[in-house]
Design brief:
126 residues; mainly beta; seven-stranded mixed β-sheet; four-stranded antiparallel β-sheet; 52% strand; globular
Length: 126
């Protein structure tokens, strides 16, 4: 019902910046009705939620390690989700996934999202 595609990953030195994008598509998709989130997973580690944004964009969530460095936003007219990543650190290195189809309650992601993108690799060198 929903297809997600990420872009914008790459290799950057510590202290640098990247902007990730996620475009949603699908038959009869009403993008503005979906909460959206970014997850990441590094080799040998569990997948973790990085950031999330509510349907209307008024509520956001950031994991503690990225607070003050990452900014999530969305442009519903373009069916696009963004993650601006500044002051990147080596520990930010991971595969980043866009996700939707979940509840966003009390400022956090509830349950496992139903829809996932293919992922985009972010690598931060020391």
């Amino acid at each position: 019902q929903v297809q997600l595609a990420e872009s914008g990953g790459g290799l950057v030195q510590a202290g640098g910046s990247l902007r990730l994008s996620c475009t949603a598509s699908g038959p009869e998709l009403i993008y503005s009705h979906y909460n959206m989130a970014w997850f990441r997973q590094a080799p040998g580690k569990e997948r973790e939620g990085v950031s999330a944004i509510s349907v209307g964009g008024s509520n956001t969530y950031y994991a503690d390690p990225v607070k003050g460095r990452f900014t999530v936003s969305r442009d519903n007219s373009k069916n696009t989700l963004y993650l601006q990543m500044n002051s990147l650190k080596p520990e930010d290195t991971a595969m980043y996934y866009c996700a939707s189809g979940f509840q966003f309650e009390a400022g956090h992601i509830v349950g496992v999202p139903k829809y996932w993108g293919q992922g985009t690799q972010v690598t931060v060198s020391p």
